[in-house]
Amino acid sequence: MNANKILVVEDDPRMQKLLRSQLEMRGYPVEVVDDGPAALTAVADSEPSLVLLDIGLATLDGLEVCRELREWSAVPIILVTATDAPEAKIKGLEYGADDYLTKPFHMGELVARIRAVLRRVYAERVSAPPVMEVDGLRIDAQRREVRRQDELLHLTKTEFDLLWELVSHAGKVLTYDYLLNVIWGGGATDTRPIHVHICNLRRKLEQGPTSPRHILAVPGIGYRFRLSDLTP
After folding, report:
1. Helix (H, G, I), strand (E, B), or coil: what is residue 112?
2. What is the pLDDT of residues 191-202, one digit of tens each?
């Protein structure tokens, strides 16, 4: 990984220039590409720390780029959208994006979100946390792998982070505010990304009945992870 390098995927020359100047002024190396295929190539070749990905690309739109990246890369992705329509944002999160911003946005908010993501990546790189085994799941935070028996479960970065937090506090309710702060960084207030990622996580983890077995909602408050030997 190229430390702190930001890959900007944006086809508007004026926005390219603004993002490059503002991010480089804050000390981030920046690479700019203007279409989806070039973004896929750049991630493979230069291994950026984070991808700032515009949805409205003319060639291979940002949602499709996000979906394809998640087939082989865990690089953090922040989507940039020109519309506040929730459908596009939800689809982006379902495809594995870590966060999103709606144009026009304040540069300070963008930088705060980037810093929050990079802090998590750096912490994972310099630490060697333990492996947790619960109810047939083996969760290895150093390898960032989750296995159910011998089956490797393919989780996005955000799904893994959520699962690790929930299992680390099994039996306790983690509030929306706590999860937003830990996973998305200070300043995040929209709880919709939590619900979307939890839904995806449940689908990958749960077996048997459709009703949740482990990740339980506490309406209006948050979520908790229930072990099989804990009370309902």
Report:
1. helix
2. 888 999 999 999
Reported pTM: 0.60
Going from the N-terminus, what domains does the chain have, and what CATH number goes with each?
2-126 (3.40.50.2300), 131-225 (1.10.10.10)
C-alpha–C-alpha distance, residues 196 and 90, integer Å: 7
Query: How many whole angstroms separate alpha carbon 163 and alpha carbon 135?
Result: 13
Place of tokens 């394809």: 68
Coil/strand/helix, residue 156: coil
Residue of 103, 204, 90, 95 whose CA lies nearest to 146: 204
Residues 156-172: b if buried by 16+ CB within 10 A, e if exposed? bbbbbbbbbbbbeeeee
Q: Which of 109, 112, 124 is nearest to 160 (CA)?
A: 124
Q: Are 78 and 51 in contact (CB under 8 A)?
A: yes
Element (H, E) at 100: strand 99-102
Q: In this predicted model, what pLDDT tens digit does every residue of 89-139 receive, in sequence order? A: 788 888 888 888 888 888 988 998 888 777 766 665 555 457 888 888 889
- Residue 182: how many other CB atoms lie within 10 Å: 16
Q: CA 123: distance to chain centroid?
A: 15
Residue 33 near residue 57 (C-beta atoms within 8 A): no
Q: Return the amino acid letter for 136.
A: G
